[in-house]
């Protein structure tokens, strides 16, 4: 099957790329290794967006939410409705195994877990939330280790370790503690990060000070076993009884996929990919970047509301080059 453009990633930005491609009359396909808007699906069950609903809208489809800020459930419903309204061509649960330039360099050969395709151009809109930073320690493969947090109920009366120093770790520690978990935080840094929400920081600091949430700073997990974990602290190695490890260590773009396609990166500390801001074409000819991956490790630089316009820029560039 031959397409004008293959869009890798069926998140909100990938969907709007598909909408713009369809409006332009281009043959396109959106492909994703997970479900529709897989990153949003992996958000905590009760998560509420910081943005208002109109800032999350794509494709001129109104997003009506019950509150001033939409929640995860409403967002999933909205993007399903957008996909159906535009009758977007989306293949889900299909992993991209390999992308190679065609022998004549007039496009790409795409090999996936389900089929083979040809495309004149590729848009990478893979986001970052699907790729957690791994601990790379023995026992990380155990089922008790979670890199995504869903809800507090499963951790009632359980001894849990929360790893991290940012908002996700703080939110998880507080919520699980309030729902009856025995919570210990393990923080590599000497203190919680300054980026922790100002209205939450006093709460977690008070819980730590009173001893409700035991916290080890300047510390790291070194091994995870069935009912305990080892932690290196400034005072030496300790072993803690443990039922679950919630590793809120952050997430990153799929750099390996970009590198495999020839995308180059700048010399800064943030692994920022090289691309033309006027077209969003990367250093690899025919490979375009959309959404949060444009910021490299600056994963807070781009969100839906300030990157949804990337789709129009890219599709206009593809139309001009056609």
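Q: What amino acid sequence fits the structure above?
A:
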């Amino acid at each position: 099957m031959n397409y004008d453009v293959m869009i890798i990633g069926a998140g909100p930005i990938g969907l709007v790329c598909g909408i713009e491609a369809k409006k332009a009359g281009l043959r396109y396909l959106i492909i994703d290794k997970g479900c529709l808007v897989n990153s949003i699906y992996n958000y905590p069950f009760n998560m509420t967006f910081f943005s208002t609903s109109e800032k999350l809208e794509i494709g001129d489809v109104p997003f009506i939410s019950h509150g001033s800020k939409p929640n995860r459930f409403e967002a999933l419903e909205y993007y399903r409705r957008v996909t159906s309204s535009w009758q977007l061509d989306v293949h889900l649960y299909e992993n991209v195994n390999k992308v190679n330039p065609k022998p004549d360099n007039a496009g790409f050969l795409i090999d996936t877990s389900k089929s083979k395709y040809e495309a004149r151009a590729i848009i990478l809109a893979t986001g970052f939330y699907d790729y957690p930073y791994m601990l790379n320690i023995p026992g990380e493969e155990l089922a008790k280790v979670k890199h995504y947090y869903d809800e507090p109920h499963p951790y009632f009366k359980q001894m849990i370790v929360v790893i991290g120093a940012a908002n996700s770790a703080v939110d998880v520690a507080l919520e699980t503690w309030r729902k009856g978990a025995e919570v210990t935080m393990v923080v590599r840094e000497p203190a919680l990060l300054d980026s922790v929400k100002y209205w939450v920081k006093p709460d977690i600091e008070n819980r730590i000070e009173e001893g409700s949430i035991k916290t080890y700073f300047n510390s790291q997990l070194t091994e995870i076993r069935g009912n305990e974990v080892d932690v290196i602290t400034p005072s030496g190695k300790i072993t803690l009884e443990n039922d679950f490890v919630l590793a809120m260590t952050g997430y990153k773009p799929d750099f390996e996929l970009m590198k495999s396609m020839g995308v180059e990166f700048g010399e800064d500390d943030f692994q920022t990919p090289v691309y033309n801001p006027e077209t969003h074409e990367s250093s690899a000819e025919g490979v375009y970047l959309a959404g949060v991956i444009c910021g490299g490790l600056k994963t807070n630089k781009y969100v839906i509301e300030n990157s949804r316009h990337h789709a129009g820029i890219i599709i206009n560039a593809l139309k001009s080059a056609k």
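Q: And what stands out in the fold?
A: The mean pLDDT is 94.
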